[in-house]
């Protein structure tokens, strides 16, 4: 029986993970569940899954959670605040951690899980983008394994021999990440001036949280994934390409020196990647319907329109700069996306905020978590100033 700490249980990845876990009650148990502020959602999940530990990230809601769990006759212990998340990730409450918090808020618990030597099922790509080097050091220290949940990296992992080999020794020429193109594929900049948050979140193929949905619409999601691939597979930026594939059936590909290209295919459903990461090196039922190739009929591929979707090149630029530049890119993106979702910032200005932030915040090397958090804060303040300048 594998005990699972699911951080970000009330989100989209959280729901998909619990769906897979519930299909295998003999193999998996959700022993820890966490949420940010959604007390009622967390209580509901605790009624069903009876975890040992329930964690609410907003400490002001601890009392309410305790009260509502008792009223529901659930005996889970309660922890609260960022420290509670770290304890849940690092402590002896679970064997594996699913890192499914969105954004930089997931960084410290992700690092704590890595350092503890547990199996880390990583969905929280922002933590790799911010702190790839620190995460690698934490994994080396803990001796556990990282299984990528992001569908592209899960696909690459499946297409590499032994999961994460030295790319040159394995004869890999390129990693090719596929992008659906998001809801605005085919549009020009002039078409995107007035798009609303709801339009940006109406993804044609994937149902996801709102932040990653906006990232998919700007293609920053693919930019973050390029940086994620760089760290997870020790691939140079020049070895990582992106191709638009609107059907979202091919989840990514690995091209080898001899001309072979291996791809992982499947219906666009995160339960496949989650089930793979949970059961690795085995395979289990994920509740995902079989891929019908005849019904799919076509697999299209096209180049990214880099003039309209500028965020992808900004991510390559941050990767080339190195040091804290990817963390600055991430911080500026989180601030800009939040402002866009709040109806304050136009869609096209998201890229402007990121570009300006990268230009204004000097990149330094990352040595410690404290230093990184400090530079994350600096980048957020700068992005806020740029946003304020753009909206007045
Ligand atoms: P979501 O918004 O649906 O859920 C986010 C979860 O994080 C919720 O449980 C929420 O309570 C928690 N959370 C939010 N802010 C928090 C904070 N400050 N402190 C603690 N917890 C907080 O997001 P999602 O779509 O499930 O995405 C989660 C992560 O997985 C993201 O990093 C995303 O990029 C990545 N991811 C998601 C998908 C997908 O299909 N949804 C695919 C690939 C990768
Ligand atoms: Mg992805």
Helix content: 40-55%
Molecules bound to protein? nicotinamide-adenine-dinucleotide, magnesium ion
Tally of individual domains: 3
Low-confidence parts, pLDDT < 50 over ≥5 residues? Answer: none
The general outline is globular
User: Beta-sheet strand percentage?
Assistant: 5-15%
Average pLDDT score: 97
Number of H/I helices: 16
**What's the β-strand tally?**
11
The value of Rg in angstroms is 20 Å
Overview of this structure, please?
This protein has about 400 residues and is an alpha/beta fold. It has three domains: about 1-150, 3-Layer(aba) Sandwich (Rossmann fold), CATH 3.40.50; about 155-185 and about 195-295, no CATH class; about 320-390, RNA polymerase sigma factor, region 2, helix turn helix motif (Rna Polymerase Sigma Factor, Chain: A), CATH 1.10.1740. About 45% of the residues lie in helices and about 15% in strands. The chain has 16 helices and eleven strands. It has helices spanning about 10-20, 40-50, 60-70, 80-90, 105-115, 125-140, 150-160, 195-200, 210-220, 220-235, 270-280, 295, 310-320, 325-340, 350-360, 370-390; strands at about 1-5, 30-35, 55, 75-80, 95-100, 120, 145-150, 170-180, 240-245, 250-255, 260-265. The chain has a seven-stranded parallel beta sheet with strand order 4-3-2-1-5-6-7, sandwiched between helices. Helix 6 (about 125-140) links the parallel strand 6 (about 120) and strand 7 (about 145-150). Helix 5 (about 105-115) runs parallel beside helix 6 (about 125-140), helix 6 packs parallel to helix 10 (about 220-235) and helix 9 (about 210-220) crosses helix 14 (about 325-340). The radius of gyration is 20 Å and the shape is globular. The model has no long low-confidence stretch (mean pLDDT about 95). Nicotinamide-adenine-dinucleotide binds next to helix 1, helix 6 and helix 9.
């Amino acid at each position: 029986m594998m005990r699972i700490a699911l951080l970000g249980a009330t989100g989209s990845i959280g729901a998909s993970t619990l769906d897979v876990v519930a299909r295998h009650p003999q193999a998996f148990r959700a022993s820890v569940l966490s949420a940010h502020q959604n007390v009622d959602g967390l209580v509901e999940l605790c009624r069903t899954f009876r975890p040992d530990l329930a964690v609410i990230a907003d400490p002001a809601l601890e009392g309410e959670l305790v009260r509502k769990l008792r009223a529901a006759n659930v005996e889970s212990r309660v922890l609260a605040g960022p420290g509670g998340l770290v304890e849940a990730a690092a402590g002896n409450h679970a064997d594996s951690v699913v890192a499914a918090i969105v954004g930089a808020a997931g960084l410290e618990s992700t690092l704590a899980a890595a350092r503890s030597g547990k199996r880390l099922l990583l969905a929280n790509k922002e933590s790799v983008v911010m702190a790839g080097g620190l995460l690698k050091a934490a994994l080396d220290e803990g001796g556990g394994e990282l299984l990528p949940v992001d569908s592209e990296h899960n696909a690459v992992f499946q297409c590499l021999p032994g999961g994460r080999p030295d790319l040159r020794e394995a004869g890999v020429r390129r990693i090719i990440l596929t992008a659906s193109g998001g809801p605005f594929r085919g549009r020009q900049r002039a078409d995107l001036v007035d798009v609303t948050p709801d339009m940006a979140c109406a993804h044609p193929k994937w149902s996801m949280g709102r932040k990653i949905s906006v990232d998919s619409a700007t293609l920053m999601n693919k930019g973050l994934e390029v940086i994620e691939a760089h760290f997870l597979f020790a691939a140079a930026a020049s070895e990582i390409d992106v191709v638009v594939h609107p059907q979202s059936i091919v989840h990514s590909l690995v091209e080898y020196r001899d001309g072979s290209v291996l791809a992982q295919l499947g219906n666009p459903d995160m339960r496949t990647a989650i089930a793979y990461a949970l059961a690795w090196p085995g395979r289990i039922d994920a509740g995902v319907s079989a891929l019908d190739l005849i019904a799919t009929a076509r697999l299209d591929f096209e180049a990214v329109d880099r003039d309209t979707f500028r965020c992808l090149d900004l991510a390559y630029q941050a990767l080339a700069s190195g040091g804290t530049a990817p963390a600055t890119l991430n911080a500026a993106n989180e601030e800009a996306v939040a402002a866009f979702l709040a109806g304050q910032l136009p869609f096209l200005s998201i890229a402007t905020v990121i570009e300006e932030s990268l230009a204004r915040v000097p990149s330094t090397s990352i040595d410690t978590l404290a230093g990184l958090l400090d530079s994350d804060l600096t980048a957020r303040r700068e992005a806020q100033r740029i946003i304020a300048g753009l909206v007045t």
